[in-house]
Q: What sequence folds into this?
């Protein structure tokens, strides 16, 4: 058994937060109560797939995650014969990919388990999920599925009901800050980075490591502030065109906008005279927030992006 660390964890999960969930997983391992299928869900960039990988590694290693045995080495190099890992490459998982996967799960495994790790299972369209469901219902021998999702509402209920589910949440600001300070030292932008990250360590680390992403965040945030200050629909629509062409920018935009609205609410409640009080009531801001979330949801469901964003921007005019 591994040494207990001061966090009372049996294993070094190498992740921030999620203590409760990890302790529960450790309990299942200790009690040898492993399910044939797991679904870990929660926000992007909180380390869910990292945990899934670590969990798979613990299950495969005969020495409780030693990092030195053959299994650990093969997993680290991505060439373990009993691990099929489908990381999110931004592409849809097609029905043919699922068939291929089913074929692989039927081959004999070498070691303790055959583990199939799939990042963001919602990448499977409904028909692919349905076809995948059959393997979940009749798992081949020693196969264990570990699935993750950032968009749990896009996963079929029939899949959800056949897996052991774990929900993960964003990490507390204080915990995140302490971790970043310990790991990266002092950083004059740290408070801003914490604010932008909204409890997502993956994003915070990206912002620390890549100042260009931080600059981009700032510029889009300033752009939003500018847009909310006055009516200028044609400029807003031109901006929508640029967002429409770059999908990564879209996520940045939604994050920055919700951050800006949070700031507005805070200002509203804490001071009498903030810049936008003459333009928006507190109720307007709440409505904008709701519409922003709705727009994000619609776009995720493949609604026309441009149209949805233009409709949203109409609400920012007075
Ligand atoms: Zn090992």
A:
């Amino acid at each position: 058994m591994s040494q207990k660390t001061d966090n009372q964890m049996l294993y070094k999960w190498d992740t921030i937060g999620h203590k409760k969930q990890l302790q529960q997983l450790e309990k299942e391992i200790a009690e040898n109560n492993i399910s044939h299928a797991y679904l870990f869900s929660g926000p992007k960039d909180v380390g869910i797939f990292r945990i899934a990988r670590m969990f798979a590694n613990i299950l495969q290693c005969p020495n409780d995650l030693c990092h030195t045995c053959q299994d650990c080495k093969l997993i680290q190099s991505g060439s373990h014969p009993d691990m099929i890992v489908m990381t999110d490459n931004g592409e849809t998982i097609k029905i043919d990919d699922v068939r291929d996967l089913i074929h692989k799960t039927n081959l004999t495994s070498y070691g303790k388990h055959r583990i199939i790790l799939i990042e963001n299972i919602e990448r499977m369209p409904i028909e692919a999920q349905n076809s995948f469901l059959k393997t979940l219902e009749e798992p081949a021998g020693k196969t264990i599925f570990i699935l993750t999702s950032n968009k749990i509402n896009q996963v079929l209920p029939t899949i959800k009901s056949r897996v052991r589910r774990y929900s993960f949440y964003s990490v507390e600001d204080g915990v995140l800050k302490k971790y970043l300070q310990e790991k990266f030292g002092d950083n004059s932008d740290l408070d801003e980075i914490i604010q932008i990250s909204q409890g997502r360590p993956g994003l915070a680390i990206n912002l620390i490591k890549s100042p260009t992403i931080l600059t981009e965040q700032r510029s889009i945030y300033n752009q939003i502030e500018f847009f909310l200050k006055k009516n200028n629909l044609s400029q807003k629509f031109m901006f929508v065109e640029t967002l429409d062409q770059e999908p990564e920018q879209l996520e940045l935009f939604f994050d920055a906008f919700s951050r800006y609205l949070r700031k507005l609410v805070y200002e509203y409640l804490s001071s009498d005279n903030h810049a936008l009080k003459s333009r928006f009531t507190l109720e307007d801001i709440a409505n904008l927030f709701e519409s922003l979330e709705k727009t994000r949801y619609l776009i995720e469901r493949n609604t026309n992006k441009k149209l949805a964003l233009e409709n949203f921007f109409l609400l920012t005019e007075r």
